[in-house]
Amino acid sequence: xxxxxxxxxxxxxxxxxxxxxxxxxxxxxxxxxxxxxxxxxxxxxxxxxxxxxxxxxxxxxxxxxxxxxxxxxxxxxxxxxxxxxxxxxxxxxxxxxxxxxxxxxxxxxxxxxxxxxxxxxxxxxxxxxxxxxxxxxxxxxxxxxxxxxxxxxxxxxxxxxxxxxxxxxxxxxxxxxxxxxxxxxxxxxxxxxxxxxxxxxxxxxxxxxxxxxxxxxxxxxxxxxxxxxxxxxxxxxxxxxxxxxxxxxxxxxxxxxxxxxxxxxxxxxxxxxxxxxxxxxxxxxxxxxxxxxxxxxxxxxxxxxxxxxxxxxxxxxxxxxxxxxxxxxxxxxxxxxxxxxxxxxxxxxxxxxxxxxxxxxxxxxxxxxxxxxxxxxxxxxxxxxxxxxxxxxxxxxxxxxxxxxxxxxx
Length: 410
Description:
Blueprint: H1 2-9, H2 12-29, H3 31-34, H4 36-43, H5 47-75, H6 77-97, H7 102-111, H8 113-116, H9 118-129, H10 135-143, H11 148-163, H12 165-186, H13 199-203, H14 209-240, H15 251-267, H16 269-279, H17 281-299, H18 306-334, H19 339-369, H20 373-397
Helix pairs in contact: 2-9, 2-10, 2-11, 2-12, 5-6, 5-7, 5-9, 5-14, 5-19, 6-7, 6-9, 6-12, 9-10, 9-19, 10-16, 10-18, 11-12, 11-15, 14-15, 14-18, 14-19, 15-18, 16-17, 16-18, 17-18, 17-20, 19-20
Protein backbone atom coordinates (compact mmCIF):
# COMPACT_ATOMS: atom_id res chain seq x y z
CA UNK A 1 0.00 0.00 0.00
CA UNK A 2 2.78 2.42 0.93
CA UNK A 3 4.58 1.76 -2.37
CA UNK A 4 1.37 2.47 -4.27
CA UNK A 5 0.86 5.73 -2.38
CA UNK A 6 4.47 6.70 -3.08
CA UNK A 7 3.99 6.19 -6.83
CA UNK A 8 0.82 8.27 -6.80
CA UNK A 9 2.44 11.06 -4.79
CA UNK A 10 4.87 12.13 -7.50
CA UNK A 11 5.96 11.59 -11.10
CA UNK A 12 7.69 8.23 -11.60
CA UNK A 13 9.13 8.95 -15.09
CA UNK A 14 10.87 12.07 -13.78
CA UNK A 15 12.17 10.18 -10.74
CA UNK A 16 13.52 7.41 -12.99
CA UNK A 17 15.13 10.00 -15.25
CA UNK A 18 16.69 11.75 -12.26
CA UNK A 19 18.23 8.43 -11.21
CA UNK A 20 19.52 7.63 -14.72
CA UNK A 21 20.98 11.12 -15.14
CA UNK A 22 22.76 10.91 -11.81
CA UNK A 23 23.85 7.31 -12.46
CA UNK A 24 25.51 7.85 -15.84
CA UNK A 25 26.95 11.18 -14.68
CA UNK A 26 28.44 9.64 -11.55
CA UNK A 27 29.95 6.86 -13.66
CA UNK A 28 31.65 9.48 -15.82
CA UNK A 29 32.62 11.71 -12.90
CA UNK A 30 34.75 8.99 -11.26
CA UNK A 31 36.40 7.69 -14.45
CA UNK A 32 39.80 9.08 -13.44
CA UNK A 33 39.60 7.15 -10.19
CA UNK A 34 38.39 3.96 -11.87
CA UNK A 35 41.19 4.17 -14.46
CA UNK A 36 43.79 5.51 -12.02
CA UNK A 37 46.00 2.39 -12.02
CA UNK A 38 46.32 2.63 -15.81
CA UNK A 39 46.67 6.41 -16.08
CA UNK A 40 49.24 6.72 -13.28
CA UNK A 41 51.36 3.97 -14.85
CA UNK A 42 51.70 6.05 -18.03
CA UNK A 43 52.85 9.16 -16.13
CA UNK A 44 54.81 7.65 -13.20
CA UNK A 45 53.19 9.68 -10.42
CA UNK A 46 54.06 9.97 -6.73
CA UNK A 47 51.54 9.08 -4.00
CA UNK A 48 50.49 12.72 -3.64
CA UNK A 49 50.22 13.21 -7.41
CA UNK A 50 48.06 10.09 -7.69
CA UNK A 51 45.72 11.36 -4.99
CA UNK A 52 45.52 14.79 -6.63
CA UNK A 53 44.78 13.31 -10.05
CA UNK A 54 41.77 11.33 -8.80
CA UNK A 55 40.55 14.24 -6.67
CA UNK A 56 40.50 16.99 -9.30
CA UNK A 57 37.20 15.80 -10.88
CA UNK A 58 35.64 16.01 -7.42
CA UNK A 59 36.84 19.60 -7.11
CA UNK A 60 35.33 20.37 -10.52
CA UNK A 61 32.01 18.92 -9.42
CA UNK A 62 32.14 21.04 -6.28
CA UNK A 63 32.73 24.21 -8.30
CA UNK A 64 29.98 23.54 -10.85
CA UNK A 65 27.27 22.37 -8.47
CA UNK A 66 26.25 25.80 -7.22
CA UNK A 67 25.73 27.34 -10.69
CA UNK A 68 23.92 24.18 -11.81
CA UNK A 69 21.65 24.41 -8.77
CA UNK A 70 20.85 28.03 -9.57
CA UNK A 71 20.30 27.09 -13.22
CA UNK A 72 17.82 24.39 -12.16
CA UNK A 73 15.86 26.98 -10.16
CA UNK A 74 15.89 29.55 -12.96
CA UNK A 75 15.23 27.55 -16.14
CA UNK A 76 13.87 24.29 -14.73
CA UNK A 77 15.46 20.92 -14.03
CA UNK A 78 14.80 19.52 -17.50
CA UNK A 79 16.70 22.21 -19.42
CA UNK A 80 19.42 22.33 -16.76
CA UNK A 81 19.92 18.55 -16.96
CA UNK A 82 20.19 18.53 -20.74
CA UNK A 83 22.66 21.41 -20.53
CA UNK A 84 24.78 19.54 -17.99
CA UNK A 85 24.90 16.37 -20.08
CA UNK A 86 25.82 18.31 -23.22
CA UNK A 87 28.75 19.95 -21.41
CA UNK A 88 29.89 16.56 -20.09
CA UNK A 89 30.54 15.41 -23.66
CA UNK A 90 33.44 17.91 -23.90
CA UNK A 91 35.88 16.25 -21.44
CA UNK A 92 34.91 12.77 -22.67
CA UNK A 93 35.81 13.73 -26.24
CA UNK A 94 39.06 15.32 -25.02
CA UNK A 95 39.98 12.25 -22.95
CA UNK A 96 39.30 9.99 -25.92
CA UNK A 97 41.25 11.95 -28.53
CA UNK A 98 43.75 13.73 -26.28
CA UNK A 99 44.88 13.46 -22.67
CA UNK A 100 48.55 13.04 -23.58
CA UNK A 101 50.03 15.04 -20.69
CA UNK A 102 49.41 15.28 -16.97
CA UNK A 103 48.22 18.88 -17.40
CA UNK A 104 45.62 17.71 -19.91
CA UNK A 105 44.50 14.96 -17.54
CA UNK A 106 44.02 17.55 -14.81
CA UNK A 107 42.00 19.79 -17.14
CA UNK A 108 39.90 16.87 -18.38
CA UNK A 109 39.32 15.83 -14.79
CA UNK A 110 38.20 19.31 -13.79
CA UNK A 111 35.72 19.47 -16.68
CA UNK A 112 34.36 16.07 -15.65
CA UNK A 113 32.97 18.14 -12.78
CA UNK A 114 30.05 18.95 -15.11
CA UNK A 115 29.00 15.34 -14.57
CA UNK A 116 29.40 15.68 -10.81
CA UNK A 117 27.20 18.78 -10.89
CA UNK A 118 24.28 16.57 -11.99
CA UNK A 119 23.61 16.11 -8.30
CA UNK A 120 22.18 19.63 -7.96
CA UNK A 121 19.71 18.99 -10.78
CA UNK A 122 18.66 15.38 -10.27
CA UNK A 123 17.97 15.75 -6.54
CA UNK A 124 16.07 18.99 -7.12
CA UNK A 125 13.96 17.25 -9.76
CA UNK A 126 13.14 14.39 -7.40
CA UNK A 127 12.47 16.61 -4.39
CA UNK A 128 10.03 18.95 -6.13
CA UNK A 129 7.75 16.10 -7.22
CA UNK A 130 7.25 14.53 -3.77
CA UNK A 131 5.65 15.68 -0.48
CA UNK A 132 7.58 15.92 2.82
CA UNK A 133 6.73 12.41 4.04
CA UNK A 134 8.45 10.90 0.99
CA UNK A 135 11.44 13.24 0.67
CA UNK A 136 13.94 10.78 2.10
CA UNK A 137 12.88 7.93 -0.16
CA UNK A 138 12.50 10.02 -3.34
CA UNK A 139 15.85 11.74 -2.95
CA UNK A 140 17.41 8.47 -1.88
CA UNK A 141 16.24 6.80 -5.10
CA UNK A 142 17.58 9.64 -7.23
CA UNK A 143 20.75 9.73 -5.16
CA UNK A 144 21.26 5.99 -5.65
CA UNK A 145 22.75 7.12 -8.94
CA UNK A 146 25.94 6.92 -6.86
CA UNK A 147 25.86 3.36 -8.18
CA UNK A 148 27.34 4.74 -11.38
CA UNK A 149 30.63 4.54 -9.48
CA UNK A 150 30.26 0.76 -9.41
CA UNK A 151 29.80 0.69 -13.18
CA UNK A 152 33.00 2.67 -13.62
CA UNK A 153 35.09 0.60 -11.21
CA UNK A 154 33.79 -2.73 -12.54
CA UNK A 155 33.90 -2.14 -16.29
CA UNK A 156 36.52 0.63 -16.47
CA UNK A 157 39.62 -1.47 -15.68
CA UNK A 158 38.47 -4.30 -17.96
CA UNK A 159 37.84 -1.96 -20.88
CA UNK A 160 41.11 -0.11 -20.24
CA UNK A 161 43.06 -3.35 -20.32
CA UNK A 162 41.33 -4.49 -23.51
CA UNK A 163 41.17 -1.22 -25.47
CA UNK A 164 43.34 1.32 -23.63
CA UNK A 165 42.18 3.88 -21.09
CA UNK A 166 41.76 6.66 -23.69
CA UNK A 167 39.08 4.66 -25.50
CA UNK A 168 37.12 4.21 -22.27
CA UNK A 169 36.34 7.94 -22.38
CA UNK A 170 34.99 7.52 -25.89
CA UNK A 171 32.91 4.48 -24.94
CA UNK A 172 31.38 6.42 -22.03
CA UNK A 173 29.75 8.85 -24.46
CA UNK A 174 27.40 6.10 -25.66
CA UNK A 175 25.38 5.63 -22.44
CA UNK A 176 25.46 9.38 -21.83
CA UNK A 177 23.76 10.12 -25.16
CA UNK A 178 21.20 7.37 -24.50
CA UNK A 179 20.30 8.89 -21.13
CA UNK A 180 20.05 12.36 -22.71
CA UNK A 181 17.39 11.02 -25.08
CA UNK A 182 15.43 9.34 -22.25
CA UNK A 183 15.71 12.48 -20.11
CA UNK A 184 14.43 14.70 -22.92
CA UNK A 185 11.42 12.46 -23.49
CA UNK A 186 10.33 11.53 -19.94
CA UNK A 187 11.11 14.48 -17.67
CA UNK A 188 8.50 17.03 -16.68
CA UNK A 189 9.28 19.96 -14.43
CA UNK A 190 7.20 19.89 -11.25
CA UNK A 191 4.20 22.26 -11.28
CA UNK A 192 5.12 23.60 -7.84
CA UNK A 193 8.58 24.77 -8.93
CA UNK A 194 9.25 28.28 -7.59
CA UNK A 195 9.34 31.23 -9.96
CA UNK A 196 12.83 32.42 -11.01
CA UNK A 197 14.41 34.97 -8.70
CA UNK A 198 17.34 37.39 -9.02
CA UNK A 199 20.73 35.72 -8.54
CA UNK A 200 21.40 37.56 -5.27
CA UNK A 201 18.18 36.20 -3.81
CA UNK A 202 19.44 32.66 -4.35
CA UNK A 203 22.75 33.45 -2.71
CA UNK A 204 20.97 34.87 0.33
CA UNK A 205 20.80 31.34 1.76
CA UNK A 206 24.46 31.76 2.67
CA UNK A 207 23.39 34.04 5.51
CA UNK A 208 21.69 31.13 7.29
CA UNK A 209 23.92 29.24 9.72
CA UNK A 210 22.07 26.04 8.86
CA UNK A 211 23.40 26.25 5.30
CA UNK A 212 26.92 26.00 6.66
CA UNK A 213 26.03 23.23 9.10
CA UNK A 214 24.43 21.12 6.39
CA UNK A 215 27.46 21.76 4.19
CA UNK A 216 29.81 20.55 6.91
CA UNK A 217 27.80 17.42 7.65
CA UNK A 218 27.47 16.52 3.97
CA UNK A 219 31.18 17.12 3.44
CA UNK A 220 31.70 14.19 5.79
CA UNK A 221 29.11 11.78 4.36
CA UNK A 222 29.28 12.50 0.63
CA UNK A 223 32.87 13.70 0.76
CA UNK A 224 33.86 10.50 2.50
CA UNK A 225 31.97 8.40 -0.02
CA UNK A 226 33.19 10.00 -3.24
CA UNK A 227 36.69 10.74 -1.93
CA UNK A 228 37.31 7.14 -0.91
CA UNK A 229 35.54 5.77 -4.01
CA UNK A 230 38.05 7.60 -6.19
CA UNK A 231 41.03 6.70 -4.01
CA UNK A 232 40.04 3.08 -3.30
CA UNK A 233 41.77 1.55 -6.32
CA UNK A 234 45.06 3.16 -5.29
CA UNK A 235 44.45 2.18 -1.65
CA UNK A 236 43.71 -1.52 -2.25
CA UNK A 237 46.44 -1.96 -4.86
CA UNK A 238 48.99 -0.26 -2.63
CA UNK A 239 48.32 -2.71 0.21
CA UNK A 240 47.25 -5.93 -1.51
CA UNK A 241 48.31 -5.50 -5.17
CA UNK A 242 50.72 -7.72 -7.07
CA UNK A 243 53.22 -4.86 -7.42
CA UNK A 244 53.86 -4.90 -3.67
CA UNK A 245 53.06 -8.54 -2.89
CA UNK A 246 54.06 -11.51 -5.08
CA UNK A 247 50.85 -13.31 -5.97
CA UNK A 248 48.80 -10.30 -4.83
CA UNK A 249 45.71 -8.84 -6.45
CA UNK A 250 45.78 -7.74 -10.09
CA UNK A 251 44.43 -4.39 -11.22
CA UNK A 252 41.27 -6.09 -12.49
CA UNK A 253 40.74 -7.87 -9.16
CA UNK A 254 41.23 -4.61 -7.30
CA UNK A 255 38.51 -3.15 -9.50
CA UNK A 256 36.16 -5.90 -8.30
CA UNK A 257 36.92 -5.10 -4.64
CA UNK A 258 36.34 -1.40 -5.18
CA UNK A 259 33.07 -2.18 -6.96
CA UNK A 260 31.80 -4.17 -3.97
CA UNK A 261 32.74 -1.34 -1.62
CA UNK A 262 31.11 1.29 -3.81
CA UNK A 263 27.92 -0.77 -4.26
CA UNK A 264 27.56 -0.86 -0.48
CA UNK A 265 27.58 2.95 -0.36
CA UNK A 266 25.44 3.46 -3.43
CA UNK A 267 22.56 1.12 -2.77
CA UNK A 268 22.29 1.92 0.91
CA UNK A 269 21.62 5.58 0.12
CA UNK A 270 17.87 5.07 -0.51
CA UNK A 271 17.79 2.77 2.52
CA UNK A 272 19.14 5.64 4.59
CA UNK A 273 16.51 7.98 3.17
CA UNK A 274 13.74 5.44 3.87
CA UNK A 275 14.88 4.84 7.46
CA UNK A 276 15.23 8.59 7.96
CA UNK A 277 11.61 9.01 6.84
CA UNK A 278 10.65 6.52 9.56
CA UNK A 279 12.77 7.57 12.54
CA UNK A 280 14.10 10.98 11.47
CA UNK A 281 17.32 11.91 9.74
CA UNK A 282 18.83 13.53 12.82
CA UNK A 283 18.50 10.42 14.95
CA UNK A 284 19.88 8.19 12.22
CA UNK A 285 22.87 10.38 11.43
CA UNK A 286 24.21 10.26 14.98
CA UNK A 287 24.33 6.46 14.72
CA UNK A 288 25.86 6.50 11.24
CA UNK A 289 28.60 8.99 12.07
CA UNK A 290 29.56 6.89 15.09
CA UNK A 291 29.85 3.70 13.01
CA UNK A 292 31.88 5.46 10.31
CA UNK A 293 34.35 6.64 12.94
CA UNK A 294 34.73 3.12 14.32
CA UNK A 295 35.23 1.72 10.79
CA UNK A 296 37.95 4.27 9.99
CA UNK A 297 39.86 3.27 13.10
CA UNK A 298 39.39 -0.40 12.18
CA UNK A 299 40.76 0.24 8.67
CA UNK A 300 43.82 1.85 10.29
CA UNK A 301 44.72 -1.56 11.78
CA UNK A 302 45.54 -2.65 8.21
CA UNK A 303 44.42 -6.30 8.43
CA UNK A 304 46.50 -8.76 6.45
CA UNK A 305 43.40 -10.24 4.81
CA UNK A 306 41.91 -8.17 2.00
CA UNK A 307 38.53 -9.76 2.79
CA UNK A 308 38.58 -8.31 6.30
CA UNK A 309 39.55 -4.94 4.86
CA UNK A 310 36.74 -5.27 2.35
CA UNK A 311 34.31 -5.79 5.23
CA UNK A 312 35.54 -2.69 7.06
CA UNK A 313 35.47 -0.47 3.97
CA UNK A 314 32.07 -1.78 2.84
CA UNK A 315 30.42 -1.11 6.20
CA UNK A 316 31.98 2.36 6.27
CA UNK A 317 30.76 3.13 2.74
CA UNK A 318 27.29 1.74 3.47
CA UNK A 319 27.00 4.09 6.45
CA UNK A 320 28.29 7.03 4.41
CA UNK A 321 25.73 6.21 1.72
CA UNK A 322 22.90 6.06 4.25
CA UNK A 323 24.23 9.29 5.71
CA UNK A 324 23.92 10.98 2.32
CA UNK A 325 20.26 9.95 2.17
CA UNK A 326 19.69 11.08 5.74
CA UNK A 327 21.13 14.56 5.23
CA UNK A 328 18.86 15.10 2.26
CA UNK A 329 15.87 13.85 4.17
CA UNK A 330 16.35 16.83 6.50
CA UNK A 331 17.35 19.58 4.04
CA UNK A 332 14.04 19.90 2.08
CA UNK A 333 12.20 20.30 5.38
CA UNK A 334 14.38 23.25 6.26
CA UNK A 335 14.81 24.86 2.81
CA UNK A 336 11.78 23.78 0.79
CA UNK A 337 11.58 26.90 -1.41
CA UNK A 338 15.34 27.08 -2.14
CA UNK A 339 15.94 23.39 -2.75
CA UNK A 340 17.78 23.87 -6.07
CA UNK A 341 20.39 26.32 -4.86
CA UNK A 342 20.73 24.72 -1.41
CA UNK A 343 21.27 21.36 -3.08
CA UNK A 344 23.99 22.96 -5.19
CA UNK A 345 25.66 24.60 -2.18
CA UNK A 346 25.54 21.56 0.09
CA UNK A 347 26.49 19.31 -2.82
CA UNK A 348 29.46 21.57 -3.53
CA UNK A 349 30.57 21.19 0.08
CA UNK A 350 30.27 17.44 -0.28
CA UNK A 351 32.40 17.54 -3.38
CA UNK A 352 34.96 19.73 -1.62
CA UNK A 353 35.15 17.21 1.20
CA UNK A 354 35.74 14.49 -1.38
CA UNK A 355 38.55 16.55 -2.90
CA UNK A 356 40.24 17.27 0.42
CA UNK A 357 40.18 13.65 1.64
CA UNK A 358 42.65 12.14 -0.86
CA UNK A 359 44.50 15.35 -1.74
CA UNK A 360 45.32 16.66 1.75
CA UNK A 361 44.89 13.65 4.03
CA UNK A 362 45.27 10.18 2.52
CA UNK A 363 47.76 10.92 -0.28
CA UNK A 364 50.22 13.21 1.54
CA UNK A 365 50.17 11.16 4.76
CA UNK A 366 50.87 7.99 2.79
CA UNK A 367 53.80 9.68 1.06
CA UNK A 368 55.24 11.17 4.25
CA UNK A 369 54.81 8.10 6.48
CA UNK A 370 55.00 5.28 3.93
CA UNK A 371 51.74 3.83 5.28
CA UNK A 372 47.99 4.31 4.99
CA UNK A 373 47.58 3.98 8.78
CA UNK A 374 47.96 7.63 9.79
CA UNK A 375 45.49 8.83 7.19
CA UNK A 376 42.68 6.69 8.54
CA UNK A 377 43.48 7.54 12.14
CA UNK A 378 43.02 11.19 11.15
CA UNK A 379 39.79 10.40 9.29
CA UNK A 380 38.37 8.49 12.27
CA UNK A 381 39.20 11.40 14.58
CA UNK A 382 37.58 13.96 12.27
CA UNK A 383 34.35 11.95 12.03
CA UNK A 384 34.27 11.42 15.79
CA UNK A 385 34.50 15.17 16.40
CA UNK A 386 31.81 15.75 13.75
CA UNK A 387 29.51 13.30 15.55
CA UNK A 388 29.71 15.36 18.73
CA UNK A 389 29.17 18.63 16.84
CA UNK A 390 26.18 17.19 14.98
CA UNK A 391 24.55 16.06 18.22
CA UNK A 392 24.96 19.55 19.71
CA UNK A 393 23.64 21.34 16.61
CA UNK A 394 20.57 19.13 16.26
CA UNK A 395 19.63 19.88 19.86
CA UNK A 396 19.44 23.57 18.92
CA UNK A 397 17.42 22.70 15.79
CA UNK A 398 14.82 20.96 17.94
CA UNK A 399 14.37 24.22 19.82
CA UNK A 400 13.97 26.32 16.65
CA UNK A 401 12.63 25.07 13.29
CA UNK A 402 12.49 21.31 14.04
CA UNK A 403 9.98 21.49 16.86
CA UNK A 404 7.53 18.62 17.22
CA UNK A 405 4.56 20.86 16.42
CA UNK A 406 6.19 22.04 13.17
CA UNK A 407 5.45 18.71 11.50
CA UNK A 408 9.12 18.13 10.72
CA UNK A 409 10.24 14.52 10.83
CA UNK A 410 13.55 14.90 12.65
